[in-house]
Design goal:
By secondary structure, this protein is an alpha/beta fold. The protein has three domains: 2-192, Rossmann fold, CATH 3.40.50.300; 252-475 and 486-493, Leucine Aminopeptidase, subunit E, domain 1; 559-758, 2-Layer Sandwich (HIT family, subunit A). It is built from 27 helices and 22 strands. It binds a DNA duplex (10 and 10 nucleotides) through helix 5.
Amino acid sequence: MAEMDCEPTSKEGEGQGKPIVVLLMGAPGSGKSTFCEHVIRSSTRPWVRVCQDTIGNGKAGTKSQCLKSATSALEDGKSVFIDRCNLDREQRAEFVKLGSPQVEMHAVVLDLPAQLCISRSVKRTGHEGNLQGGKAAAVVNRMLQKKELPKLSEGFHRITFCQNDSDVQTALNTYSALSHLDTLPPGCFGQKNPDAKIQLGIMKFLKKVEVPVNVGPDANFPKHPLSTQITKAKDSCCKQPEDISSSSGNAKEIKGGEDIVVHSVDGTVSSKDIPTLAFPSISTADFQFNHEKAADIILEKVEEFVNKVENARLVLVDLSHGSKILSLVRAKAAQRNIDSNKFFTFVGDITRLYSKGGLRCNAIANAANWRLKPGGGGANAAIFSAAGPELEVETKKRAGSLIPGKALVVPLPSTSPLFSREGVTHVIHVLGPNMNRQRPNCLNNDYVKGSKVLREAYTSLFEGFASIMNTQGNLLEGSSENLRSELSVSQDHFKGNHIKNVPNHDQKIKRVGVYESETSKKCKGFQDEHEFDCTESKEGKDKLNNEKIGRNMTKTWGSWAQSLYHIAMHPEKHKDNLIEISDDVVVLNDLYPKAQRHLLVLARSEGLDCLADVGGEHLQLLRTMHAVGLKWAEKFLCEDELLVFRIGYHSAPSMRQLHLHVISQDFNSKHLKNKKHWNSFNSAFFRDSVDVIEEITNHGRATIKGEDSQLSMELRCHRCRSAHPNMPRLKSHISNCQASFPPSLLQNDRLVLAPSKSGSEP
DNA sequence: GTTCTAGAAC
DNA sequence: GTTCTAGAAC
């Protein structure tokens, strides 16, 4: 009986490594079964899913049936998913006993918003648990009220908490990448707010009560650096030389990937979880860029990347064995002694690297067209087609076009076949220079410009890749390390007479291409006066529309988004609405204040529309804006010392013309109406001016936090961090919440308080 | 950015 | 029936 409930993924458990029992935990609709299915589909480790809903062969199953089934799978050397809710400790206890010195016990907690679970439960039709329709909400709510999050002390070796889809994705990646021999580090991962408050917060809104709570941090959650994948990659990287390293130590061509497959099967390879980018040679095919020159540039850029970033692989891919560019690059890589663990070439179809070639890549580059549209034949068409409509949708969300030299990172939803079949989590569109007269924007053999643009293209591409590694490797909320810190990890053990990290390395990485992993920018660019014939292109119209010609246009702005720009350019015409005018800035009250006090300090420079436009040359202006903002905050504090201010920028503002928000933290305003309003001031989307200045000083650029991800986050109180189901409830909560601000805000002068409140003044 | 509104959620 | 969200239009 038990056998038919199991879904083994491999014939026999060859199991040299320890089997794992992963106890999934989550409400109906939290995605437990989906999680198992995804991992089972893409993992090389043999897994068995034990599901109480199906184990009873038609009837509801029992716990002991599950235990029995799990035990027999473990005896076969298989790893096991326990797919049941497991929300309370008592329910879990018996399964935890499956753990032993030979069997590692893990928990994956799908702690997603109740609303989401409910809506999924309601929507599902064929779910095995037969939990459908209106009952779902009641059941989910009842279950969640009893929820007890697991603790290591219960007997778990490792616990992964997932609080949103992106956490789930990361956990999926981690377990999918786990081969026979791999082990994962022990500890708790992903618990973003190891604070019982939050859980109470959720419970409270389910119970429809609201009282400020005061619960201390839970000491049972050891904090770990969250770099699961990176840590693991490091381990495996050091453990063995990698499947593809050749004896010569130089880049080697892997044909069809057969050898890789063989290695994977016998379990000697655990390199597949090293972040890997597969990319085609940019511009050398249809755009007819000189191969010799292109190969030099590829090597130059690869070398730069490889020397800066640990635990990542770049793979140059071409469909044809006879590829000229591949052989050129291979030869040059050998000359330059580039570490073949980190860079090699590969012959195969870039949309089938894993399924046909056994090469696992989490990112692939697409030599896109400027419209970022499918079609056109070649790899672009193939990638769009292989990725499904999801890629087009996700691309469209982020940009409408691309200019030569730029890259655009697009995360793939798990529903995309490229994701589920090939394990590709991101496609990075990149556009190179064109030397083909038959194609738009031909550079007419100008290889000075062409080489420059091609360099930019690879820089953007690799930076985009690094930005993914960064987000995947580090999920800590509020972690603001950006690409720079990743890139500036110095690597002493890699030989070569390349420039390492010179203390003042800014020039090198300062004006790099745009990796727009999250920002939803349209039409980036026009720096360095690209000769770009766009009189009838989208850009052309946009330029007119924005009354702006030449460099630095970052985004298409609608007509309603122009008012701040007009004010900054002609303050004298708007005197009535302004409270201060100087040569550099003007100050005005926000027309729709989101708090008792909310004003804007507006930069007056033409061409400076948002944070993405800001560079080191604007430092002085940023400091002026900050000083002016601070002065006003202090003035307001004299009038009401109970106020608290934050001063900062929106990552991706809706209104054109760089403006600094000075906003009191009461958020008491009828204009604060929706989630986007709230999150734009209370998520990483809001960039404190002090941090922006620091980042520009150190790196020449400011971190820009993803619009979509940040603005759609669940609603949490900015003081006690409790979660709330909707805006009215949140607003009623914040009108009473007196909790102190979270530590992250109390640091580094992010909050501006009355002198008597801040306490630390001499 | 706001306003308007359909329809989802309660 | 009422409340709330989210997408389109401006």
